[in-house]
Amino acid sequence: MRRRWLAGLGIVLLVAVLAVLSFGLWARRPAIAQTAVPAPASFDHATIRQGARLVAAGYCIECHTAAGGQSYAGGYPVPTPFGTIYGSNITPDPTTGIGHWSEPAFVRAMRQGIARDGSHLYPAFPYTHFTRISNGDARAIYAYLMTLPPVRDRVPPPQLPFPLNVRPVMAGWNLLFFHEGRFKPKPDRSAQWNRGAYLAGGLGHCAACHSPRNIFGAENRREAYDGGQSEGWSAPALGRHSPAPLPWTKDELATYLSNGFVPTHGLAMGPMAGVTRQLAKLPPADVRAIATFVASLAPAPSADAAVAAAAAARAAYHVTTATAVAGRGPAKTGAAIFAGACASCHFEGGDQPFYRPVRLGLSSVVNEPDARDFVHIVMAGIQPPSGAAGRWMPPFGVALTDRQITLLAQYVRSHFSGKPGWTGIARAVSDARKEPGS
Ligand code: HEC
Ligand code: HEC
Ligand code: HEC
User: Fold this and answer.
1) Residue 285 Cα, ligand 1 centroid: separation in angstroms?
2) CA–CA distance, 313 with 245 (Å, rounded to integer)
3) What residue ranges define each of the domains in the chain, with the CATH number in brackets?
């Protein structure tokens, strides 16, 4: 209670500081004059093709396309802890899109988070990472966007409480938390590593989801890649604190990032599914570069550690359903639900062909400290995007009660992970019930 009160006071004080800073900096940035919508033929093909790859590396389409809407016409609701901000229409429509934006106006938005008219954009648009990209890449993205079919579609205004709905407040936020600047290669690292660091840290903004954030929604740079959250999902730590029982290798990362699945770790789900859908469009050398960079975040496992981890993981998943149904009381109920509802697909033993689900003991979803991803998956199931073939798991949110899901989660955690039990399962279940579609 006392801690909550202190946190509340802290928030009030910090908001006051932010307000003072912002209004000191009130001076709005200058607008950049409108230009005529550039003719698609004014851009050369090589540049447009380069731009097409770069928009995949930054998943622009994922946040700039509403469900069932036209590509890049905006309206996708990006949820933040403060409210919802809608991805803008970034087609070259002159009235509702960015048709009248000159190239310098676009480059400024990517580098500084300032719109053409001089107003501040919210960091739900990851300019905090896009600032690192090269001018050449920013120009290629501009060329690509300007050759898209223009779509006339107005995007709803952000839904934010006062004072956050006053855009100049972001000047204060930027002053405190935004570090503008290009990517600086590390001369002691390989060209492949540097390419990966450039893509992951810039357009790929992996840290935006995989790092913890402070109460102002700014990334904690000292704990970069130590695990964060996105759209109600937890994004596991990628580096030294990775919950994966088998340490990720460079090859596994490359397969996972471009296929969305690897048999030793599982499937990319929730917001990560969109990331891998886009990374699949990159040249394989770029995905390998990202994998090289991500693999370097964790200390290289010593041979002994790798063998021990593999043995522990195997021990964890060598639980047969027969032993699982043993036990008493609630544990027995959880085991019985697993045997009836899950084991037909998530059975143990046998080898591991590519089409079989990951052994649960190897999945970070089961091994991470947060129960939310597990609860999401069990309740909503897994379906490939409509019209596509892919891995499929039925949604159990309708079939199981909250209590059954809780017992099942406790059972799966204790039998497949060997990590301390989850807290907050019931809360995760009730939060997931409030989401549409569960
Ligand atoms: C994580 C979601 C997300 C991703 C990924 C994303 N954007 Fe956005 N973008 C947004 C949001 C949300 C806004 C609106 C911000 C606001 O209203 O302040 C926005 C605004 C913009 C704007 C300003 C448009 C205007 O009319 O003011 C541009 C330009 C833009 N994005 C380009 C891009 C490009 C290019 C990419 C890919 C390299 C990209 N965005 C990727 C969420 C995203
Ligand atoms: C929009 C948020 C978001 C972005 C951006 C994002 N991720 Fe993720 N990522 C997630 C979430 C959420 C999960 C957990 C869901 C799952 O297991 O599929 C995840 C899971 C992963 C996993 C699996 C971890 C494990 O141990 O199972 C890896 C590896 C990963 N992401 C790497 C990356 C890399 C590399 C990038 C940048 C190129 C990236 N992610 C960008 C949200 C994101
Ligand atoms: C019809 C087959 C089927 C059933 C039944 C089923 N699953 Fe799944 N499950 C899948 C598939 C396919 C995936 C996709 C991920 C993969 O292939 O690893 C998956 C993924 C998962 C994951 C995420 C693993 C990862 O990739 O990180 C969890 C956790 C999970 N299931 C738990 C359960 C639980 C608990 C039940 C019972 C309530 C259940 N599943 C029932 C097929 C099934």
Assistant:
1) 26
2) 6
3) 22-177 (no CATH), 203-295 (no CATH), 316-434 (1.10.760.10)
Count CB-CB contacts under 10 A for residue 84: 14
pTM for this one? 0.88
* CB-defined site of ligand 3, < 6 Å: 266-267, 341-342, 344-346, 357-358, 360, 363, 365-366, 374, 377-378, 382, 391-394, 396, 408, 412
* Beta strand spans in 118-270 (E): 228-230, 233-235, 261-262, 266-267
Per-residue tokens: 290: 């990202």
pLDDT in tens, 90-147: 999 999 999 999 999 999 999 999 999 999 999 999 999 999 999 999 999 999 999 9
To which residue do tokens 């990851």 refer?
A: 126
pLDDT by residue (tens digit) across 195-239?
999 999 999 999 999 999 999 999 999 999 999 999 989 999 998
- Pair 91, 151: CB distance under 8 Å: yes
